[in-house]
Structure formats: C-alpha cells, structure tokens
Amino acid sequence: MPASLAVTTARVLFGLIVGLPLGILMGLWMGWSRRADDYLHPIYILLRSVPPLALITYIMLWLGHSEAHRLIPIVYAVAVTAVIPTYHGVRDVASKYVVAARSLGASGRLLFRRVFLPAAGPEIFGGLRYSLAIAWMTAVGAEMLMADNGMGNLLVGGGMWASRLQTRSDPAVIIVGILTLAAAGWAMDALTRSVGSRLTRWAR
Prior knowledge:
Layout: H1 2-32, H2 34-48, H3 55-63, H4 68-91, H5 95-103, H6 108-146, H7 150-157, E1 161-162, E2 167-168, H8 171-199
Antiparallel strand pairs: 1-2
Helix pairs in contact: 1-2, 1-4, 1-6, 1-7, 3-4, 4-6, 6-7, 6-8, 7-8
C-alpha cells in the first residue's frame, strides 16, 4: 500500500508541477487580453469538453506503452481546471482598484503585477484546490485503465488471490485503499488551503 500511494502521489505532483503553470498562464492571458480571450476561449471550450482519460489510447498510438499515457492526461486535466478560476479572478477585479491604480500612474506591467495578480490570488489558489482533486481522480483513473502500479492498479486488483479452484478479491484491500486515497487528498488539500490562506492573508 505505501509503495502504491507513493507512485500515485508522484504522478499527481508531476501533473500539478507541469499543468498548473500552463493553466494559470492561459487564464491570466485570457483574462488580461480581450483579443486573446476572443481567440482562445472557443478553443478552450473545445478542449475542456474532452475527458482526460479519452487521451490515453491516442497517446499510446504515438508514444507507445510508457509512463507518458498516464502522466499527460493528468497534466491536461490540471491545466484545463486551473484556467477558469484564474480567468475569472482577473476579469472580476473590482473596477475601483483599477481606477485608483491608474489615477496614481500605474499602467501595463505594473498594473498587472501590483493590482490584477494580487487581486486574483484567492481565485488562483481556489483553482489549485480544484486542480488537486481532479489530479487525484485522473491519476487513479489512468492507473485503473492502464498501469501495473499505483493506487488505481491496487484498487482494480483488490488484493486478488488465486487458489486451485477460484480467484477472489479481498474487500479489505479495496476499502483501505479508498480510505487511504481520501486521507491523502484531504492532507494535500489542507496544506494547499493553509499556504493559500497565508499568502493571501490580506484578502480576509
């Protein structure tokens, strides 16, 4: 069980490390630039409609049976999930902040860095928490479909044992696996919430 949890956790962290910057950057760009929003938003809607696990077979056709077809869907799911909270965080900045900053001479990069980005901070961290949950679900789903290790593989196997006459699963392994996933997800969410609360303390 600990080894399977470590494998799945590593995949989740990889998805977050790669996918979050992509999603946040796209959300910031679309929220900041009307032109980018006009061009990219329809494309984003199309991409968002594709389930992450639907990519597994296509990835295998190009890259073969490797770790890529387990990691790429996680990265994709995280990136797509992080876009909308970031986008709305930038778009929904109170106009009085913008007016006040511009009246003091702020514009361009300074306005973005000192007004829009801090104001969108709570929404970005909220998106991080959603992305974390989606990363866990996608990782376990990918492992259930096409992996020989990780928590998803463990749940599908269910502690299977074979005798001369029959093959059976151990329900205890499945229940403990589900509880372990719940505990791991809760712990990572609590850590993210704590860090976000400290970094955006002013928002309270």
